[in-house]
Amino acid sequence: MNENAIPASLTAEASAPRVILRKGKEESLRRFHPWVFSGAVHHIDGEVSEGDVVSVYTAEGEFVARGHWQIGSIAVRVLTFNDEPIDEDFWLSRLEQARKVRLALTLDVPGHNTIYRLVHGEGDNLPGLVIDIYGGVAVMQAHSVGMHYSRMQIAHALRQTMGESLTAIYYKSETTLPFKASLGQENGFLYGQSDADVALENGLRFHIDWLKGQKTGFFVDQRDNRSLLEHYAKGRAVLNMFCYTGGFSVYAMRGGARLVHSVDSSAKAVELVNDNVGLNFPDDLRHEAFAEDAFRFLDEMKPQYDLIILDPPAFAKHKDSLKNALRGYTKLNARAFEKMPSGGILFTFSCSQAVNKEQFRLAVFTAAAISRRRVRILHQLHQPADHPINIYHPEGEYLKGLVLYVE
Ligand code: SAH
Q: Quick one: which of 63, 121, 239, 349 could link to 305 by a disulfide (CB 3.0–4.6 Å)?
């Protein structure tokens, strides 16, 4: 890892470039919203490159915030609203706060639950940074160049925060850093080394593929929703569509499902789900996995599943693709409703940040109406507490789900 790439501006706030806002554009910052949009910037005093720490001032010259400079529609992601240095103490105090919240959630229970999210970007006042814990291994992911430059300081603070319990820090930002920044970043360990890739979620064992897997290797955000699914699984025939590592499948097995079919278009995912089912229920013939396209599978399947999970990838990555995304959710859910026997239960999700709760609900409502089914909402689901939402940043609410009873 190249440790020399830390720009001087990271440690010398006094000389940090100053971003001067247009008149009145500090209003959202006064309400602690952690983004400065490029349209709000009047000019910059000094030289600035992507990833630099910048100080933000009003048109009248008053300090309002300090954060990382970015290229794009979000120009600054705010780290602090105080006039304080962004140094090792800063990272340490932010990580200690994040850890304190996780301790309050009692998610770190050796022998029972060792998977949880320690840092969730804006939700932990650390925009652009994600840290997931898998037993003794922390997987750290930067979504901004500024966080990338600070990675060694953050890793150091992380070791102090976690103490003995941490054996390794794996940095996994190859695909999450802005492509245009051309950082040539490769994934690798920043500290220690580990090949102990089995961790626990609610007593179930999962292989975590932090080397090559999606996100940090596992979808930590579905833990509570998987638990709820377990509760409904008894005696049912379960279809886990978009299964990835098979979290929902393994919980359904423990819940006493009659059969569990896992589907994902990726052959690698099918391998992972088979591995994870095997880890917990070796030689259990109730489970089978299929590498197939979701729409094709739903079109061709018999109406044999009375518990279906639809957890697709984000259909809308940006606001521009919102309309198409909503159509996609409607189409997908309509297919499931059409094939659902009476008394069936549907767990349906959207993880698109650009789609809000009401829009998702409307898309599913439309699907129910198209398929002319009588549908009741049993639960409204969301992301778990270790993916907290900064109250000043409602955009942080990204995971939405509905549990529906189909008559
Ligand atoms: N439910 C999973 C996470 C799902 S991630 C969990 O709890 O861990 C979304 C998955 O959808 C990915 O694994 C991806 O390979 C799969 N996918 C994407 N497009 C698909 C398609 N058209 N048909 C089936 N699977 C698809």
A: 239
